[in-house]
């Protein structure tokens, strides 16, 4: 019985002492601060919203609570759900779970937890799992279309929901039925500051694919729509895009077809687009004010999407047709009336769509009529509301809560009376505050407020909210629970908080002032017949089905029932349903207005406890006996207080309980013995029992247990020590003998070995030769050498000359030989490779080798030239007979033919030349005339200077004694400078048997007639990547070249 032992505060408020508002609040706050959010009032559960995820849910806790009774563990919503489910399954009693509380108190989450628990503990199987999944998946769909962000709650249910879950005789779910109450459809067209419209609008815009938005003719930005609050488009901790995917998935699981899902989204988009229809002032020919559509594009898009005639829709929005006995009269609407008609249409479409979704879910989860079934109902409905400005919605919500309070009081007293009668204890009448007079004030068929409101709505003549209030003032002028400005003035009372257009009702939870403005319109909830008929004419199947009254064949002049009458009828059916079931109550409380974890506002919680009537609940529960328990658990807990029953009792449970309380000398007025339970009147008596048990008897028993345990532990420890000592001694002695035997055996074997060796050497000494060791060593060496060479033969690497791998020597002694063999093998591979080459390939390789010797690691452009073969002819010499004549017939082939640029040493300008390199000459030719301008013998070339950059600049130095050299050196630019200089170097070597000096430098001089010019080459910002160079003459003897 954990509700008294080791708990934070009092777990059951029935045992609270003293029973006052202050102590009740203090107890709830103390438990809340220790994250104990659940508290009992008998079998009623109080839940305080923690605004955070607590680690007290999931499969582990479900398994824990399903195996215990209600009071055996700490208060939890699983315990209440378990009691309801077991009573339904085992006792065949229909159950209902009533979840009440104001917005933000956690009612929706509580209903989810109840459903998840029931789904977890009921039967298994493919069909059962499918039904459970459909029931659970109905929540996200209804939340998307029926929940919204309010000032008090980010996920507030804006409708009441009652779900009947139906089970078979085994306790497995078969299906269910959902009933919805009073959707707050005014939210569709208007929201308060800081609030949002229904979630589905934001989810659709945030989560729909681009193609879907295009098909629905919607924009992704919420600020594009008048019906959406532009200041509040997102909610912290809520991902609208992922929620939209979850809603689509849930609808598919429930059984919606793809066409139905698409049609639902289209109707939702229609509501958004209606808000963007702007109406403008117009005047008829007779000067009467009328209205019209400012921009017809929105109406046109609605018509295209829904299959509507846009002209008929515009006419229905801007005019109204009145049917008389003789004719139809068409009346133009002004802008205000047309806006009212537009908003009324949007609200009706959304409200009917929501009802259609509920009915469609019911079709999927309904149970066949022939099956016998048990029912568990879950009611998640608005809590009592007192706002700054209370209107028609708050009036009917509070009326519903009055009826629920009436059910609670009557059912609680009835349950108490039934238990007393079962146990054979006399029942005494309990005084309690009966709110039947308040319910009668509101719902009386002839003289109730709802009846007066309907009468005023149906009365011919001028009808307004003021006339309705006047009728109430006249009818209830002397009613004790009704107040208004008129009744106060009649009684000479002054109250500045009471307005002229207000009345006040003294509810069970406190006084609430209602503003009558809008009561008539909200109760009428009229939609012009013209709009219904236009909607019915739509070629959209779902939209057409929402307006059956628009069908001319079903047209009726009968006025539809008012909103108040419909709600009253729904509440009556709900009450009848609740009276037929065993009730279980969950009272949800909001700890603060800011949805912050850990904050507890005593003032706010005090108001809610008054709304919920918690103190009244405790008083009713404690009207007779505050505590009752079965004889067996009571005896098990308290038998240690009597020497007659401790430590063993062999008699009956009731006799044992009587022995215990008899020895404790408790007053007979405090106790009552039923057939199966003992009843204790005052919590003080129970606390007295607990005090004696905990502080006196438990302390004695704890000392006895400690003494016994210490003795047992010492005896056990001694026995283990003695047993261990014997075992250790035995092992030690055995080990010593084994070691001694081992030493004797080893000594004997050693002596035997020496003796046998001495005998063998003595008998065979004559056969030993002095060179035996050398012979054996040579044989072994040859063997491993042979093995090494044969292994090397089988593991030779490939014959690719680039493959320089070689097997490692198995022994160090073969390391040198292994290296020599590798060198021989590699040279053999190279020779084989050279033997396969043609003469042209050999010549190319020799040229590449020469280029490497000249320019490797010296000139930056060398690495790029390595993979490119030397072509020689870059100007198409074979196709130019004129150029072929220039080389002469006896000099053999042209080694290089390309276009170069000659740098003028005087001014630095360049001009194109054709350069031909033969085996004996260098010929420079004009590119246009194809005539030899300069012929330089290779014996006249004294050297070459080239830079280390990527440029093609080089200087051709000539001997001064030659005829050409007298004019000076040549400064040229070649795109193939590596190939040109390599072949020139080889041609000079072949012609003169001398090596041509090739100097790599950035500073050199060239002769110019009888003087010299210093050339300085620098690298520009492009670092020679674009191939361009610029020459600039500085002074008379200096030339700066930038590459």
Automatic annotation (TrEMBL):
GO terms for biological process: actin filament organization; actin filament-based movement; endocytosis; sensory perception of sound. Residues 8-694 form the Myosin motor domain. SMART domains: IQ (SM00015), MYSc (SM00242). Pfam families: IQ, Myosin_head, Myosin_TH1. GO terms for molecular function: actin filament binding; ATP binding; calmodulin binding; microfilament motor activity. InterPro entries: IQ_motif_EF-hand-BS, Kinesin_motor_dom_sf, Myosin_head_motor_dom-like, Myosin_TH1, MYSc_Myo1, P-loop_NTPase. PANTHER family: MYOSIN (PTHR13140), UNCONVENTIONAL MYOSIN-IA (PTHR13140:SF291). Involved in directing the movement of organelles along actin filaments. This is Unconventional myosin-Ia.
